[in-house]
Write a structure and sequence with these properties.
The chain contains 12 helices and 7 strands. β2, α7 and β3 form a beta-alpha-beta unit. 38% of the residues lie in helices and 10% in strands. Strands 1-7-6-5-4-2-3 form a 7-stranded mixed β-sheet, sandwiched between helices. It is an alpha/beta fold and 368 residues long. α4 packs across α12, α5 runs parallel beside α7 and α8 packs parallel to α9. It is globular. This is Tyrosine decarboxylase isoform X1. InterPro entries: Aromatic_deC, PyrdxlP-dep_de-COase, PyrdxlP-dep_Trfase, PyrdxlP-dep_Trfase_major, Pyridoxal-P_BS.
Length: 368
Amino acid sequence: MDSTEFRKRGMEMVEYICNYLETLGERRVTPSVEPGYLRHLLPTEAPQEPEDWDQIMSDVEDKIMPGVTHWQHPRFHAYFPAGNSFPSILGDMLGDGIGCIGFSWAASPACTELETIVLDWLGKAIGLPDHFLALKEGSTGGGVIQTSASECVLVTMLAARAQALKRLKAQHPFVEEGHLLSKLMAYCSKEAHSCVEKAAMICFVKLRILEPDENASLRGQTVGEAMEEDELQGLVPFFVSTTLGTTGSCAFDNLTEIGNELKKFPCVWLHVDAAYAGNSFICPELKPLLKGIEYADSFNTNPNKWLLTNFDCSTLWVRDRIRLTSALVVDPLYLKHGYSDAAIDYRHWGVPLSRRFRSLKLCAKLVA
């Protein structure tokens, strides 16, 4: 396919997407297929010769679409909202066309700087404290776009684990790290997303799942008593994951109570998972639901839910970016550049090295 045909096929694809979204209500929400349906409709090997694009699009409609669950359908009410919009789609299209891999400032300065700026925009709109904003004078925090809320929880738990192990090794220099690791305990509510449990599995740490109150809200006294019990058992509390807008019922943990309780445990990292409800705090009348955020060490939300930014786009802010990056820095010579000390390198803010230009679609949705 050359640029001439790409222009033609690109316009056809935009028309196909528009028609798909405009007539989506006429389709079934969920497919009437069984596992393995597609295997019987496609060849066992990739074709040796290129196929005509019209035939490819015919196969999309005849073979792929019958197996699609239509998340943008007006009658789709499963799981969670998966927002989409034309500005976001166009931003993703531009990012795909540019095709940069923005793992460092030098790898693509605009990719890094737009992400920093747009995350500050969104953080201000939500009502996050100034210490979460990268460009605020005196701030050591900042925001980053991750793949999903699960990744946000994982990287913050990794950072909290690294901080806890560093402190314990200083206190017990002759104790093996594996033994110290076995003492670490994380906490969350029974209503928290399952990604907290998965993060604990990956981090090889213990997780204590706590009972919420009658309103499905985790309370400060419950957290405090659990941590005191565990300390008496020789365990080391190091991480608490709270939720604003739980998966099961959109319940809100009591951040203010938990934050006050954690004053007794100053080395414990407090994370706030607002993947579901966080975008709503843009509305002035809902900002009181963010009460207690000043106690948090990190906060995440998903613009790909309510903010009509197509997946993947999960935003994470941290109070102290050095505490995050120090747990994730791997700095080989071939990735170093002359501005490493003056610029943000987002490869140190998460698990993957390679990063897409995702800030374009978020920026497009915020300004268009």
